[in-house]
Amino acid sequence: MLFASDALTAAPGGARLAVRLTPRARRDAIEGAVREADGQTSLRVAVSAPPVDGKANDALIALVASSLGVTKGAISVAAGASGRRKLLFVAGEVALLRSRLRLATDAL
Fold this sequence. Notes:
- There is one protein chain.
- By secondary structure, the protein is an alpha+beta fold.
- It has helices at about 55-70, 95-105; strands spanning about 10, 15-20, 30-35, 40-45, 75-80, 85-90.
- The protein has one domain (about 5-105): YggU-like (Conserved Hypothetical Protein Mth637, Chain: A).
- The protein is built from 2 helices and 6 strands, in the order ββββαββα.
- A hairpin with a 5-residue loop joins strand 5 and strand 6 (about 85-90).
- The longest helix has 14 residues, at about 55-70.
- About 30% of the residues are buried.
- The mean pLDDT is about 95.
């Protein structure tokens, strides 16, 4: 069984969150965990914003920040800015971020 919290790994000063982003979706939502072809677990996220001029990335950051209870400034795209698979850096304590991610995805 996949857990969304498996997409979160510890990093100096915070955590890295692996994400698979679907832009131009009907609604903004965290859709759960997905196993990538390379075996990595990613958080599947959909945003209604188009992948133009960073709008989808901005929407992703806003949605993840809201879900984790952190400011948008605490999140940055560490890798994959122009692709569907992204690696976000989230500043904060890993255990707290992991528990908030579990709470945000429990209903899925």
